[in-house]
Amino acid sequence: ENFFGLLKSEFFYLQEFESVEEFIRELDKYIDYYNNERIKVGLNGLSPVQFKYQLHSIT
């Protein structure tokens, strides 16, 4: 549920889309941002990519 709440507040409510194609393109960008760049409290303030690299550097 957290993802969808953030999706609505950070993406959907802040933009207007000219077409369905534009919506899909921008949604893909947001999902990529969410999965790779957005800082997560549960990951000690790191993005998923930063957290992954930190784990690999420890092992």
UniProtKB/TrEMBL annotation:
<dbReference type="Pfam" id="PF13333">
    <property type="entry name" value="rve_2"/>
</dbReference>
<protein>
    <recommendedName>
        <fullName>Integrase catalytic domain-containing protein</fullName>
    </recommendedName>
</protein>
<dbReference type="GO" id="GO:0015074">
    <property type="term" value="P:DNA integration"/>
</dbReference>
<dbReference type="InterPro" id="IPR001584">
    <property type="entry name" value="Integrase_cat-core"/>
</dbReference>
<feature type="domain" description="Integrase catalytic">
    <location>
        <begin position="1"/>
        <end position="56"/>
    </location>
</feature>
<dbReference type="InterPro" id="IPR012337">
    <property type="entry name" value="RNaseH-like_sf"/>
</dbReference>
